[in-house]
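note to self — DONT lose this again. spent like an hour looking for the file last time. sequence + predicted structure for the chain T wanted, 95 res
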Amino acid sequence: MTLFRIKCDFVYLRGGEVYTTDSRIPTLQEDATPLDNALRRDFTVNSLFYNLQKKQVEDWTGRGMSDLIENQLLVTPMDARITFRDDPLRVLRAI
């Protein structure tokens, strides 16, 4: 969807994913919290949410804004070994 000439994605909160060894498609938890959702993202900069009611960015990992603005780094919200083992395509999405 485009809002004010900016392309935006709207998604449901997802979290509590469980990956099996033979699939990249996880089983999902239905009642996820914003923190659950932020932690399952590829990188901390992807875990920044915009709260439409408060009109402000929410950084549930506490690192997304600094990784984006100050450090200019792509960092996984959880242990990188686990993150990339769960979904190896995340490495390619970093490029």
